[in-house]
Amino acid sequence: MDAPTPIAVILPTTGWNDVCEQIADQLQPDDELLVVCDEFHESVADRAEARDGVRSIVAGEPEDCSGKANAIAAGMEAADAERIVWTDDDFSHPSGWLEKLRIDYDRRGPTSELPVFVGRDPLAAVLEPTHAISGTLAVSLANIPWGGSLVFERDDLDDEQRFLDELRQTVSDDGLLSEHVEFTTIKRPRHVEIGGSTRETLENQARFVKIVRYHDPTGTAAQGMLAAVLTVACLLFPLPMLALTTLSMAAIYAAFGIHRWTFLAAYPVALAAIPLLVYGLARRTFVWGGRRYRWDGKFDVTIEPL
Hints:
This protein has 13 helices and 10 strands.
């Protein structure tokens, strides 16, 4: 039997945590886990040194890009393997997670799993139907890569150095990757908690809207048209639309194994679709990961004081 293809797992994080342990336990002998932090953490370096195949990488402070994009770029430059996995530390990585991605690539080439966003505060919970549509259903149907769990190889990039240079000038790592590599999205959802406070949820809303604006402007226009049609229909035919939106959302939840009561919020969320889109487009800055970003163009990013 042939030896498994070596994989480099790039994990941006702020410190050693349970996800680091989960992934380290899944490494094959030639795999590596790169735990990427903005600055040196002795505890991370010590824990990484104690595990076979694990390295601590210091990305440094981002200048013209997001901290996540900067960390991914640093991880890719430090990685030895040709096959690359990107992942995040905000969801559980059960046994077999890495091996499934290895098999996915062997069968399908560049592959991504799916996010299911679960709200940690009341507003984020109520907005779960919007994420089920745009963050799960649309990602699945359009084969859009999700940076939380994906696999590809360096040769899949048309120009790796150009990609890394662009990565250090933008906010969305997976949004940029979608323009360089064609992915197949696997219907294998991973539940990711988001929010935590009303302010954080609103910051996420602004960031999500801007990602679509700069990486899929046609999608933003389509989203606006659909939201307008839904709003008018909900206002003109409230009872039928209440039933239709609720049942449709329940079907989407069932299709992706989402067992949450929040499908019941589908009707009010449909009414709020236009205000939410306008809010995201109108915001000049947003906070993400402890930094405030002004994102005025795909490659026009400024980090401002909090």
